[in-house]
Design brief:
Blueprint: E1 3-9, H1 14-25, E2 31-38, H2 44-51, E3 56-58, H3 67-80, E4 85-88, H4 97-102, E5 107-111, H5 123-130, E6 134-141, E7 151-158, H6 165-188, E8 192-195, E9 198-201, H7 209-213
Length: 223
């Protein structure tokens, strides 16, 4: 049976595009995007969905007095499309515990840092300010704690001399486009699942993207 994703977005939708392509090519097996939902009516990601023939729904959070009211309306929309997995792809809203619990084990997020480093916002600026040698992205199960759920996959990106937020963010985003479809493929195939103890693997990968991109933890050499 084909699995259905509902993708939640607030911005450009580049991860949405990567996931859509992975569904179309079968990288994410037997899976399709059932709907795209945005809390921002002007989000360019909605246009991407429409162009791809995917139902695009606007649910403006500003029309709801309380966060819980918005989350209830959002839950109703997601359940209307019978989502097997809820995919946060640049969705800039902190979700209530009741919402997260409703989708426990089948809601994923991608965060632009090597968690647990730099949860929250402004990750690239914080990484540069800290002077780290490696930055990156993490796909994780969503739990009640901010960016604190069990990690499925990470990709490490070297911080190069002369990097600014824009250049570093671009390389991290390219890594996100690789690892989010991979995490979803593992989830829908049953290779990985969420348990109370954390991430549980039926067959753990021999290597992960972080190791593949950054086999050494030595500081990157200047060109």
């Amino acid at each position: 049976m084909t699995k259905k994703l509902v993708v939640l977005v607030s911005g450009q939708g580049s991860n949405l595009e990567a996931i859509r392509a992975a569904c179309d090519t079968g990288q994410i097996p037997d899976t399709r995007i059932a709907a795209v939902i945005s809390n921002r009516p002007t989000a360019p990601a909605l246009g991407r969905a429409i162009e791809a023939g995917i139902p695009a729904v606007t649910l403006d959070h500003r029309a709801h007095a309380r966060r819980a009211d918005f989350d209830m309306a959002l839950q109703k929309q997601i359940d209307h499309y019978a989502a097997d997995v809820v995919v946060l792809a640049g969705f800039m809203r902190q979700l209530t515990p009741a919402f997260v619990q409703h989708y426990a084990g089948r809601i994923l997020n991608i965060h632009p840092s090597l968690l647990p480093a730099f949860p929250g916002l402004h990750t690239h600026a914080r990484a540069l300010a800290q002077g780290v040698f490696w930055h990156g992205a993490s796909v994780h199960f969503v739990t009640e704690g901010l960016d604190g759920g069990p990690i499925i996959i990470q990709a490490a990106v070297a911080v190069l001399p002369g990097d600014d937020e824009k250049s570093l963010a671009a390389r991290v985003l390219a890594a996100e486009h690789r690892i989010y479809p991979q995490a979803l493929a593992w989830l829908v195939s049953g290779r990985v699942r969420y348990t109370a103890e954390g991430t549980h693997w039926r067959e753990k990968p021999q290597t992960n993207v972080r190791e593949a991109i950054a086999p050494s933890l030595e500081p990157p050499r200047e060109p």
